[in-house]
Fold these 3 entries.
Entry 1:
Amino acid sequence: MAQDYSFQHFNVHFPADSPYVAHVEINRAKKMNAFFEAMWLELGQIFARLSEDPAVRAIVLTGAGEKAFTAGLDVQAASEGSILSSGTEGDPARKATHIRRHVAEFQNCISSVEKCEKPVIVAMHGFSFGLAIDISVAADVRLCSRDVKFAVKEVDIGLAADIGTLSRLPKVVGNFGWVKDVALTARIFGAEEALRVGFVSGVYDSKQETVSAALKMASLIASKSPVAVQGTKEILNYSRDHTVQDGLRYTGVWNSAALQTNDVSSALLSGIQKRTPTFEKL
C-alpha cells in the first residue's frame, strides 16, 4: 500500500487474497481490547484515511486474541484521568461545556465508522460489551461467533450510553422494547438472541470462521463497482434517517451524477459476455 497504516493500538493490513479489502484489528488483547482515549482517536484517524484510500473498497474490523472483540471502555484508565474529575473548580456551565466537547469528540471518532465511504463489516467474538455495541451499530454489517457475549453495560457504571448505542441500536433492530430491555438491565445476551432480533446477520462456530466469513463478504463487495457500493451505503444511511420521499429525492440527485459512470456499461457488458467486470479505483 502507498499509505503508511502503522498505529500503536491497531493492526491494519491488506490480505493478499482479498484485493481492495482492508482488515483492521483492535490490538490490545492483554487488556481484552478495552479502549482508552488514545485508541478511539486512532480509530477515527484510521477510518478517515481508509474512507479516502482509492485502493480500499471494503473493510473488516476485528479484535485481537481469543477472549474479546472489546470489553468496552477501560474503566481503570478512565478513572485515572476522568473527564468528570478535571476542572472541578469551574462553574457548572463551563464544566458542562468541557464535558460536552469531550463527548462530542469521542462520538465523532466512533461515527467515523459510519461516515466511512467504504462498507464496514464487524466480526465479533468473546466479550463484546459497551463500546463494542457503539462501534458495531456504526458499521454496516455485523457477524459474530457462537461464543460471543453482548451487553449494553453503561447503566452498570452509572451513566446512559452516550457514544451511539441508544441512537443507532433501535434503528438497527427495529424493536424499541428489546433495546430498552437490554439497555436498562445491562444483561448479557448471546449470539442466537442477537441473530433473532436482527442485531447480527450471521453466527459462526468460532472466531476464525467469523473473520473468514467477514473477509469473504468484504471480497465480494470489493468486486462490485465502487461507485455503486459507495452510493448504496450513502443512500441507505440517508434514507434511514429521513422520510421515503426525502430518500427518493436524494437518490435521484445522487444518481443523476453517479449514473454517468463507465461502471454501468462495464457491468452490463460483462454480464452479456459472461466475464468478471473490472472497475477503476475511486
Entry 2:
Amino acid sequence: MVSHFVLAWLALLHDPRIATAIIVIGCPDYVRLMTDRAAKSKLPSWTDGQGREFLGSKDFPRSLVEAVERYDPAGLLMGELDTVTGDDYIHPPSEAEITRLRPLMREHLGGKRILCLSGGKDKLVPYACGDPFLHFLKSAIDEKKGWFNDRGTRLEDVVDKEAGHEYSAKMSHVAVKWISDLLAEDSQEGALGTGKSAGSRTSKM
C-alpha cells in the first residue's frame, strides 16, 4: 500500500494535466520514509540485518521496490545516479547522468510549479526523509548553476519550524500568498505574453 503522504508527488509527476501543486506534509522519497519508520518501529526485517535486509523483505517486498523505482520521485530520478552512497545527491551529476536525467525531468517536472509545506517537528513524516530529493531538485533547477534551469520548473520549500504533523496557520498563510502571487503573475504574463522563469526558494518560519 502506498502512503497518502506520497500521493501528491505521484500525481504531480505522472499526470501531465497538473502543472501547479501545493504539497502539504508530503514526502518525495518513499524508501527513506518507510525505512525511517521501520527503524523507529524496530521491525524484525530491519533489526535482523541492521537495515540491510529491509528492502526486499516481506515488509517491503521486491515488487514494491520495483514500483518505487518506476514511480516514486526519488526512485525515478535519483535512481538514475550512477552511485548510491547515501550522499550522492549532494554531488553534481556527471554529464552521462544528466543525459539520462534531462528527458525524465522534462517529461515529469518540466514547467511545473511546486510549493512544499512541512512541519519542522513532524515525527510521522520527518522533513529529513524528503530533504535529499528536495536538495537534488533545488540543485537541478538553480537559476545560476542548475543543469535543468531552462524548463520553467519552480520549487518553494517552506518549513514551519514549530509545526508538527499538521497544516498550521503559518502554512495556510504561505499557501494563500503563494496562490495569490501566482495568479497575479499569470495574469501579468498573459497580458505581456511572457514565459515563466525557473527557480527555487527555501524558507523556514
Entry 3:
Amino acid sequence: MTGIVATAALTGCAALEYREDVCNSGEYPVLAVGDSGSDCVRDGEEPSAGYARYPEGKVPREVDDTWDVYWRTHTLDKDGNIIDAPDEG
C-alpha cells in the first residue's frame, strides 16, 4: 500500500511543470526588426530603435511556447510585415 501512495505522489508531482517567462514581471517582450533577436522593455516604455512590439495575439509569454518557437524563424520588416528571419550563420 505504501508503494501505491508513493507512486501516486510522484506521478502528481510530475504533472507540475516549470515554465520560464520570456520577460520579468513589469516588462513586456519586443522583437528585433529584420532579425530574430528579442528583448524585454519595462511596462510603460516604448521599444528602443530597431525593436518593435510583437503583433497582437502573437506575443510569446513563456520560453518554448508556440509564439516563442514561431518567432525564432520569423521577424518583422521595417513596415511591420511578418517575414522569414535571416539565417544565423
